[in-house]
């Protein structure tokens, strides 16, 4: 039975080298990093080394890196923490309409408790205009949050421009870089980023550990209150082995970025060209070039993405769709709708996200399987039947 994993935007496999680095901290070095005795100091040392590694990957100080339990926590902390610490200045916050739910849902919650939110729409190519962000700024704006790269369509946002705008207007700028970290170079200083969320399991680290970069001088309230961990800003006994894994996975991803990206892009481009050559009536979602090299997002007219995913699964291919049941909701993906696609088209979406362990040897199988499956679903589709009759 084949097993071809094409869902690296959802999560990635833990790297073997990362696992080896984590192993001593799963059981042997179990000392609490907050303890006084030397045994606990081994754990503390590992955390501080990890912090330095992460800082060097993003060009910041280690004292600006805070470990969290996931990307979702980092996003929640950034948004709720700034809203709370800056409420005397104003109650208006800005984001885009294609953010991950960890940001969008947090914005909706802030609205519920009395903040004003602006969701700036993206262009048809899935990229927001930095000037539209600037136009949305008001006197009482306290936060701009724009994702670095989109998890569904892979588009890369104009982070440097938005960072410069935020700086000019003296507004805190947060970016959800969960998809970007380890995939594209990130220099938080050059980009004027104040807060940045990342998550280990998106770059071959373990699940359940993330980080938030908080620029020195940014005033932000805590999300978790309790003990004095993370320099009193994020309580809870540290996930030592997770933190060690996050840092090692990030280090490897950044070190091998060029090599991995060249490999991933070659496979992605071959699959894209193969499918386009074999399957008619396709829409390719997201900007053609300004996107993560690992991402393809198609809409196949006349079919349901969810049926396609289930049939691909039977052929050993793990893929994803922004449609209906696959995402546990009846509406198609908010990202695809934000591109201006009608509901019935958005329902026929397929996202393939490749990784460093994807193989060129699988390209033909992937292309043929997708083409055959789309064809089979179209043969059963009343929409397709009436379209063919009319043309
Ligand atoms: C996966 C993802 C998250 C959530 O990260 P978790 O660690 O799974 O909580 C947030 N934002 C983006 C863009 C993501 O892709």
Structure summarized in a few sentences:
The protein has 14 helices and twelve strands.
Percent helix among the residues? 40-55%
The proportion of residues in beta strands is: 5-15%
CATH class of the largest domain: Alpha Beta
Structural class, please? alpha/beta
Number of strands: 12
CATH topology tier name of the largest domain: Aspartate Aminotransferase, domain 2
Please report the distance between the alpha carbons of the first and last residues: 40 Å
Q: State the major sheet.
A: 7 strands, mixed
CATH superfamily of the largest domain: Type I PLP-dependent aspartate aminotransferase-like (Major domain)
What is the name of the CATH architecture of the largest domain?
Answer: 3-Layer(aba) Sandwich
Structural domain tally: 2
Order of helices and strands: EHHEHEHEHEHEEEHHHEEHEHHEHH
Q: Which residues sit in consecutive blocks of at least 5 with pLDDT less than 50? A: none
Radius of gyration: 22 Å
- What is the global morphology? globular
Tally of helical segments: 14
Bound ligands: pyridoxal-5'-phosphate
């Amino acid at each position: 039975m084949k097993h071809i994993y094409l869902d690296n935007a959802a999560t990635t496999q833990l790297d073997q080298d990362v696992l080896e680095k984590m192993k001593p901290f799963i059981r042997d070095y179990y000392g609490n990093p907050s303890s006084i005795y030397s045994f606990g100091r081994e754990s503390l040392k590992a955390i501080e080394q990890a912090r330095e590694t992460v800082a060097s990957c993003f060009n910041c100080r280690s004292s600006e890196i805070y470990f969290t339990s996931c990307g979702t926590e980092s996003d929640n902390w950034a948004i709720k923490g700034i809203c709370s610490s800056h409420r005397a200045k104003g109650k208006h916050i800005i984001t885009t309409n294609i953010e991950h739910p960890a940001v969008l849902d947090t914005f909706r919650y802030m609205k519920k408790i009395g903040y004003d939110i602006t969701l700036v729409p993206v262009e048809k190519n899935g990229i927001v205009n930095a000037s539209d962000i600037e136009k949305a700024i008001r006197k009482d704006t306290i936060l701009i949050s724009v994702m670095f790269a989109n998890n569904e369509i892979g588009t890369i946002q104009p982070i440097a421009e938005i960072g410069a705008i935020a700086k000019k207007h003296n507004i805190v700028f947060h970016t959800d870089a969960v998809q970007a970290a380890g995939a594209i170079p990130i220099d938080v200083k050059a980009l004027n980023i104040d807060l940045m969320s990342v998550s280990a399991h998106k770059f071959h680290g373990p699940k359940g550990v993330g980080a938030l970069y908080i620029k020195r001088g940014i005033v932000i309230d805590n999300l978790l209150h309790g003990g004095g961990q993370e320099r009193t800003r994020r309580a809870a006994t540290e996930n030592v082995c997770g933190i060690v894994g996050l840092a090692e996975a990030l280090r490897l991803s950044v070190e091998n970025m060029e090599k991995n990206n060249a490999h991933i892009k070659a496979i992605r481009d071959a699959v894209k060209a193969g499918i386009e050559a074999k399957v008619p009536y396709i829409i390719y979602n997201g900007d053609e070039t300004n996107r993560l090299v690992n991402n393809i997002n198609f809409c196949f007219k006349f079919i349901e993405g969810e049926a396609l995913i289930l049939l691909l699964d039977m052929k050993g291919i793990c893929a994803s769709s922004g449609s209906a049941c696959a995402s546990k909701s009846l509406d198609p993906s908010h990202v695809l709708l934000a591109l201006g696609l009608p509901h019935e088209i958005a329902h026929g979406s397929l996202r393939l996200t490749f990784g460093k362990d994807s193989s060129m040897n699988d390209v033909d199988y992937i292309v043929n399987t997708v083409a055959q499956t789309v064809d089979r679903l179209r043969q059963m589709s009343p929409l397709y039947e009436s379209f063919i009759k009319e043309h």
